[in-house]
Please model this.
Amino acid sequence: MERTVSIVNKLGLHARAAARLVTLASKFECDVRVRKDGREVSGKSIMGVMMLAAAKGTEITLIAEGQDAAQALDELARLVADRFGEDE
Model:
């Protein structure tokens, strides 16, 4: 399963936002991957996610495979849409 989302927070997928994404992804049993511009990394790896350098307006694809994949995609997409809990 996969879902494409846009980064909407002002600072993009910086350290704090990446940490929130990885922390949430790690709560799920399924395999979580994040793809940007053809590069795919583990959604459970802080270094991998940060290396994507996804700025505001960038589209990323969230990929989940496994038992709780649908729930993982829903919650991860919501986190991105909510600007990772940031004001801007």
In short: The longest helix spans residues 69-81. The chain has three helices and four strands. Residues 2-85 form a domain with the Histidine-containing Protein; Chain: A; fold (CATH 3.30.1340.10). Strands lie at 2-6, 31-36, 39-42, 59-65.
